[in-house]
């Protein structure tokens, strides 16, 4: 494998979902990007590779879900029951799960951009499937609010796709790169 260019406009430390999507966003904005991953290539992906992959996002109805899982047949769609998941409900879930410690500004950005972010990830090649632990009863499939889709093949599927896309766009990845500290200027900029 070819060694990545070590000069970059943006250096991303880590290679899980958040890091790789940040790297891809920076690349789309025109930056030359380098990812530093402390794991080996065989164990790359951070905690994201271990997730089951459930994805929470704001949606009003089934019509918002269907574009994210385009392989669903009309017969499958007709069997699905989903409850809306509002921005307020998502915000309250974050507050509850963080025991009130989540930053309100960042929470608002996350919640109000959640659907568009999934559509963007889909444009990167990330695939979604229906959440596998839905309740099946009487020929219907019932999903609790906020728990309708997951990344296809969970965390491994997510990280595989993001790495494939990053590598295809020329984002360099250095493995076995332990980052202990960042060098900064007196003004606080990273050198």
Structural commentary:
Strand 6 (135-137) and strand 7 form a beta hairpin. The strands form three sheets. The protein has a three-stranded parallel beta sheet, covered by helices on one side. Strands 3-8-5 form a three-stranded antiparallel beta sheet. The protein has a three-stranded mixed beta sheet with strand order 4-7-6. The two termini are 27 Å apart. The protein is α/β, with parallel strands linked by helices. The mean pLDDT is 93. It contains seven helices and nine strands, in the order E-H-E-E-H-H-E-H-H-H-E-E-E-E-H-E. The protein has helices at 17-28, 62-65, 74-78, 87-97, 104-112, 114-123, 154-168; strands at residues 10-13, 33-36, 54-55, 80-82, 128-130, 135-137, 140-143, 149-151, 172-174. 35% of the residues lie in helices and 15% in strands. It is globular, with a radius of gyration of 19 Å.
Architecture blueprint of SSEs:
Layout: E1 10-13, H1 17-28, E2 33-36, E3 54-55, H2 62-65, H3 74-78, E4 80-82, H4 87-97, H5 104-112, H6 114-123, E5 128-130, E6 135-137, E7 140-143, E8 149-151, H7 154-168, E9 172-174
Parallel strand pairs: 1-2, 2-9, 4-7
Antiparallel strand pairs: 3-8, 5-8, 6-7
Order of secondary-structure elements: EHEEHHEHHHEEEEHE
Q: Estimate what percentage of residues fall within beta strands.
A: 15-25%
Structure summary, number of beta strands: 9
Largest sheet: 3 strands, parallel
Helix vs. strand class: alpha/beta
Helices, by number, come to: 7
Anisotropy-based shape: globular
Low-confidence stretches: none
Helix content: 25-40%
Average pLDDT figure: 93
Strand order of the largest sheet: 1-2-9
């Amino acid at each position: 494998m070819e060694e990545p260019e070590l000069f970059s406009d943006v250096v991303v430390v880590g290679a899980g979902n958040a890091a790789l999507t940040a790297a891809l966003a920076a690349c789309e904005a025109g930056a030359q990007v380098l990812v530093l991953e402390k794991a080996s290539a065989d164990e790359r992906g951070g905690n994201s590779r271990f997730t089951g992959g459930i994805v929470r996002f704001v949606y009003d109805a089934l019509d918002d879900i269907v574009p994210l899982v385009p392989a669903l047949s009309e017969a499958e769609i007709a069997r699905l029951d989903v409850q809306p998941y509002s921005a307020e409900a998502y915000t309250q879930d974050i507050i509850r799960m963080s025991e009130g410690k989540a930053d309100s500004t960042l929470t608002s950005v996350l919640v109000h951009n959640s659907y568009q972010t999934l559509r963007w990830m889909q444009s990167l090649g990330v695939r979604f499937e229906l959440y596998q632990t839905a309740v099946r009863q009487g020929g219907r499939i019932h999903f609790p609010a906020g728990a309708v889709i997951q990344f296809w093949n969970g965390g491994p599927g997510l990280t595989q796709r993001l790495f494939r896309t990053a590598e295809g766009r020329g984002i360099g990845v250095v493995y076995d790169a332990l980052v202990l500290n960042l060098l900064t200027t007196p003004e606080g900029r990273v050198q």
